Fold this protein.
Amino acid sequence: MSEIALITGCSGLLGAAVAQRLATSGYRLVLTGRNEEKLNANPIADALKVSADLALPEAVEQLFLAIDSHYGEPPSLLAHCAGSIIIRPMHRTTQEQYRNCLQNNLDSAFFTLQKFIQGLLDHKTCGSAVLVSSIAGRIGIGNHAAIAAAKAGVEGLIRSAAADYAGQRIRINGIAPGLIRSAATEGFFKGAKAEEQLAAQYSLGRYGHVDDSANAICWLLCNEADWVTGQVLAVDGGFSSIRPLVKS
Ligand SMILES: NC(=O)c1ccc[n+]([C@@H]2O[C@H](COP(=O)([O-])OP(=O)(O)OC[C@H]3O[C@@H](n4cnc5c(N)ncnc54)[C@H](OP(=O)(O)O)[C@@H]3O)[C@@H](O)[C@H]2O)c1
């Protein structure tokens, strides 16, 4: 039997793209997202689809019970693509926006990863997880305080959990994307001028496509990256690491 892969954020573009790749590779799939209608619209017919708010530990518990009752074993792969974006200066960020940001990004990552690992430990099997950070979690970018705090937390979680479970051959990695055009960011692309300006932020001359991040997630998740753990791979067109010479 093929391994079971749990992909979160499947009512969004990145989760759906990862799910599509893993379906093509023959994995048994569990797709999850909050919006049931969008989740059920996913065209992968033979996947188990469960809607859940993963910021709530009891909903995560229910998700894993549903997986157990459907497949009779826990997932050995987790692609945690659930999360949100908020771009606002601190002084205009409400407590509710801040809490939502932490819940959607950090709480969901912690509770989902915790339950995923517990399943592997109970079944004495190895596995692999990839979480999604952001360039905002690693360098200071204006107007990103709440999401920076949440994603920096995700990166700390990745490294610490990777250290805890390497001995059980459970690998835990992450990616840190730059701007990806998706439902979460569509509002930034208002017209050709805005699109051009967004692309110009990146030394490679374009903003990110969902495929860039989906490919990186699938590589880290699967056996090709069998000797990689505790890493967060920047998928950001060089934004966080290079500073080309500007010619006037
Ligand atoms: N787009 C970018 O520029 C960018 C840049 C850096 C990092 N990221 C990260 O990339 C990931 C994917 O984002 P995306 O661009 O694909 O956005 P998206 O299209 O809005 O997808 C986000 C997904 O996360 C789900 N989600 C959010 N909060 C959740 C919660 N509490 N419980 C369960 N599911 C939850 C959403 O579910 P519902 O829609 O059903 O509510 C949706 O399926 C996120 O972690 C985001 O922070 C994105």
Q: What stands out?
A: The pocket of NAP is lined by residues 8-9, 11-15, 33-35, 38, 53-55, 81-85, 103-105, 108, 132, 134, 177, 179-180, 182-185 (CB under 6 Å). The chain has one domain: 4-235. The mean pLDDT is 97.
